[in-house]
Amino acid sequence: MRAVIIGCGRVGAGLAERLARAGHEVTIVDISTDAFNRLEPDFPGQAIRADGTDEDVLRRVGTETADYFFALTEGDNRNAFAAQLAAETFGVKNVLAKINDPVRAEAYTMLGLSTICRTRVLVDAIARYTGLSGDPGADGVREAEQHHEHHNGAAPTLAAER
Fold this sequence. Notes:
Elements: E1 2-6, H1 10-21, E2 25-30, E3 46-49, H2 55-60, E4 68-71, H3 76-89, E5 94-98, H4 102-110, E6 114-116, H5 118-129, E7 141-142
Parallel strand pairs: 1-2, 1-4, 2-3, 4-5, 5-6
Antiparallel strand pairs: 6-7
C-alpha cells in the first residue's frame, strides 16, 4: 500500500511511523522542516518539505499512485483543499481529511469527503466516560456521502480556502 500524508504534526507523524513500520510506502509532506523532528531518526518513509495544498507538489510526490491520502494539518481549509485535490484531480480512492470544526466536517462529508472530526470524537469519548451513551456519528471516520469524480484537472467543486 502507498500512502501520502499531508501534515507532520503528532497525528501525521504517528500515522506515518505506524504505516511505514508495517511495511507500507509512506510519503509525508509538511511546510516546516522542524515538524519532521517528530519522526524517528530511522523513519523508513520519505519526508518532503513542501506545501501539501500545491498541485505541483502533490504531483511530484506521486499522489496519483497513492492508495490512501490523509490531510492532517492543523487547518480545516487546508485539509479540505488538499483532500479535494487528491480525490478530484489525482483520482485517489481513499481520501481522509481531519476537520476540527464539527459543522464543517458534516458539510464536507455531505460534499463528498470522508472526514474525521477530533472534536466530535473527544466529546463522545468523554461523554461515554461519564456513562452517557455514545453518539453513533462520532465514533471516528465519517465516510463521504457522495463520491468525487476524477476530473483530470477540472476546477474543484468544494469552496475551501487555503
